[in-house]
Amino acid sequence: MKALVLLSSLGVIALLAEIFSFKKLLYPIVLLGLVTAFVLNVFDWDTNHTFYKMMQYDNYAVAFTGVIIVIAFLWFIMAEGFFKEESNLTDHFALVLFALVGAVMMVSYNNMAMLFLGIEILSIPMYILAGSNKTDVASNESAFKYLIMGAFATGFLLFGIALIYGATGSFDLSEIANAVSSGTAARSIFSVGVLLMLIGMAFKVSAAPFHFWAPDVYQGAPTVITAFMSTIVKTAAFAAFLRLFSTTFMEVHGTWMNVVWVMAALTLLVGNITAVVQTSTKRMLAYSSVAHAGYMLLALLAGNDYSNSAILFYAAAYSIGSIATFCIVHIISNAKKSDGVDSFNGLAKTNPFLAVVMTIALLSLAGIPPTAGFFAKYYIFTSAFVAGNVGLVLIAIIASLIGVYYYFRLIIAMYFKESSSTEALPVESNHKLLLLFIAVLIILMGLFPDWVIKLL
Amino acid sequence: MITLLLIFFPLVAGLLLLFVKGPQVKTLALGAAILEFAIAVFALTQFHQDATTQFEWNYAWVQSLGITFHVGIDGISMLLVLLTTFLVPVIILTSFNTEHKNPSAFYSLILIMQMALVGVFVSMDGFLFYVFWELALIPIYFICLLWGGEDRARITFKFFVYTLAGSLFMLGGLIYLYLHTPGGHSFDIAALYSAGQSLDVVHQGYVFWAMFIAFAVKMPVFPFHTWQPDTYTTAPTQGTMMLSGIMLKMGTFGVIRWLLPLAPLGVEKYATLAIGLAVFGVVYASCIAIVQKDFKRLIAYSSIAHVGLIAAGILSMNTQGVQGAMMQMLSHGVNVVGLFFIVDLIQKRTNTRDIASLGGIRNVNPQFAVLFLIVLLGSVALPLTNGFVGEFLLLNGVYQFNPWMAGFAGLSVILGAVYMLRSYQSIMLGETNGITSSFAPLETSEKAVLIIICAAIIVFGVFPKPLTDIVSPAVDQLVAGLRIAVGK
Question: What is the pLDDT of residue B359?
């Protein structure tokens, strides 16, 4: 709870910075604020307190909040350049911080109203940020597409919430669950509501067939914002998705299990196969991000003891890998003015450090030991196995093999292809530190996964 | 403790090597590899020759999931650790007259790969085994990608995807067994064994295929071999040696440790099919080897033939078969490294591997001709060379399973002699021509490698007993356990 308050006040402070002109200090203040928020969050561990039944700070919420704050901290270091442009500086800060507030709300809600508020507080800044490269047509297109698609998703979600309220007479998650299990809920209306909410959530996590917005939005938005969307937004959306479906809607799992099964299979295959034919790295990573949603759906579908920690670990592993890849794509596309796969050609010669970190991150995304991504996949597969979804695990295995194909395209380009210029690309020292840290973190999480999975 | 040292010393050495610049990299790498061999020999001196698992180290790794860092060495592991630690310095020595670009990365990758290989051979936990198994793939992928020959990106990628696909099936099989272990689940080898053996024959059959495909791809057994000739041919010489000399043994070792005791009924059920594939592969690969024009490719196919026989021996699940497989793994490892080195020597001096365009090297360099002949005789399994013991036992083992199959597999001995002797004749004998007339004498390091290999071929051909003594208690125990499990 304290972390949420702190993050909100940071957002307000960012707005005040314009008036009281301490814009230069804002960046360190925010970083410090994030560290403090993390510490405050740690103190919430095992307290399991509620806030007027609106928010529930159980360990699930605290763990996901922790992951989100850590990723946000890494993201801020990656995105330092985004906060250099004088004219929009405070807007950028405030928008990102409010988006974070939304993300934290989405992992700790205990009431449909809070879920809705969280999603909107997260989404509205994202619509603006996607278009923050105002002179770029693609960025504008991205923002509009995101807004319109997001509005649709919100519509479905609200409709779903309304029907569920109609069926059970409550917005409160535990009361809804009680109403369903005691049989006082109008079952058919409730089921329709659940399915509508499912569609809304599937939009937010970009699961097929509701993923069409993702590639265009990810490609058009500035790279740092894409990184934010594919890590923090995705993690928060999955946490919200899981919180709702693994507890409140578990009672009626018969109505949504089959739908999610098909959705997961489609997401895995569509995401991975479409990624293979992309020539732009950003677009490729967008499809890869869709594919990763598919793996997480496997754990969501399993709905067993493993699910929570599997999704927590997967989201964390996927997010830190993505931050590293997006950071490197950002560096390269800034220097070469292109984000094509061929812009990676010869990177191992010009910038061996970038190439090695990129390789580690890609191996992690592809799920090869001893990286975090491998353990994440292993854990997801185990959870699906336990639930008896062997067919889905087979599809996921095939999908991972396809995944290896496009991740390795980048590796082959870096080590095997010749680059046109032999000059090393300039890399800022904070990016170097960040990448080194992430590379070590990826390996450590792969070697000692217990630290994370013990949490839930 | 010594097991941990065996695993992590090459890793540390390999990582340190990354920071070394200049020509001393080779010497340092060689030094590290020799030190590792010394550690292995020390372990051997401390090793009790019985069937127990020794030098164990069991550390709770991912406690909540029952994953342990459990390593230990029994006779089977000991022999393969010795093979690995013996071959790596030899392989590094073979590169002394080759200039690789970026040598520190090259040798570092070789040492890191050695770590993963040793790890595979000493793992006593299914999850750990899988991690080392996959870990071995990354260094060799980069060795082949960065220092390989023509069209390497495509070929090494095919290799990577093939083996990864196989491995993922194995992971599926392991998770399946893991979920059948009692209580909070465990990946420990003993728990997996009892979980596997408690399954009925149908489910053991599933486990068999899931695991067998992974091992069959790695060895490779027909029809999973299509990646192998291209990869062996394209990889740099040292990469080929690592692949064929050691990495291939991961597959055969995997069958012995992680397939037979996990699904004995499954193995029994499908043995005829699997041995049939292996034996067919033996003859098929031998026939293809006969018509090869490229000497390196010929050896690649001969390797498929040899490993097919090893697989058949193991799957026949009797003492002779498994014991023979262990011996043949050793001798094949040594011989194939020797053969690939000879290919490298010839190619460096003549710029060709085309068998037909060579000839008469013996007239120019009789010393090389003798050493080549010894290696060759070892690989066609002449009595009193190291290849003989293993091949004899293997055929004996397959014979007990099915005489007809043994007869068919026995063709490989004849066919092997045909293609090896024919190529020797064509390369070394006959008239010296323009290409071979200037065949340069051997450098000291090259001579050293060949002499070490020839010595190993002869010594262990004449006195195989020290090696069989290490492994036979473990093999006997394994086979006895299997007998009980299949109820014979």
Answer: 83
pLDDT for res B128: 94
B144 to chain A: closest CA residue = A416
Query: B383-415 b/e with 16+ CB inside 10 Å = b?
Result: eebbbbbbbbbbbbbbbebbeebbebbbebbeb
Q: For residue range B420-476, what is the model confidence (pLDDT) as tens digits?
A: 999 999 888 888 888 888 888 888 889 999 999 999 999 988 998 888 889 999 999
pLDDT digits 0-9 by tens, A48-93: 888 888 999 999 999 999 999 999 999 999 998 888 876 778 888 9
CB-CB neighbors (< 8 A) of A397 in chain B: 168-169, 172
Chain A residues whose beta carbon lies within 8 Å of the beta carbon of residue B187: none
Q: Do A412 and B142 touch (CB under 8 A)?
A: no
Q: Distance (Å, rounded) from C-alpha A375 to C-alpha B363?
A: 59
The string of pLDDT tens digits covering residues A420-439 is 777 888 888 999 999 999 99
Could you give the CA distance from residue A443 to residue A168 in angstroms, rounded to a whole number? Answer: 47
Residue A415 C-alpha, separation from nearest chain B C-alpha, in angstroms = 7
Inter-chain residue contact A415 with B134, CB threshold 8 Å: no
Is A397 in CB contact (< 8 Å) with chain B? yes
Q: Does A382 contact B at CB distance below 8 Å?
A: yes
Residue ranges of alpha helices (H) inside B95-135 are: 103-122, 126-135
Torsional sign, CA B234, B239, B242, B243: negative
Nearest-CA neighbor of B18 among B27, B31, B29?
B29
Mutate to test the interface with B, among A412, A443, A451 (most CBs of B within 10 A): A412
Closest to A109 in 3D by CA, of A1, A251, A253: A1
B145 with A449: Cβ contact below 8 A: no
Q: List, in order, residues 6 or more apart from A49 with CB less than 8 Å away.
A: A1, A57
In one letter, which amino acid is B52?
T
Helix (H, G, I), strand (E, B) or coil at A109: strand
Beta strands B67-73 and A49-51, pairing class = unpaired
B178 to chain A nearest CA, in Å? 9
DSSP string of B260-289? TTT-HHHHHHHHHHHHHHHHHHHHHHHHHH
Distance from CA of B199 to the nearest CA of A (A): 17
Pairwise CB contact (< 8 Å): B160 & A453: no
Look up the pTM and report it.
0.93
* Gap between the Cα atoms of B47 and A198, Å rounded: 61
Calpha distance A38→A6 (Å, rounded): 10
Q: How many CB pairs under 8 A join A and B?
A: 67
Report CB contact under 8 Å: B62, A450.
yes
Q: Quick one: which H or E segment has residue B441?
A: none
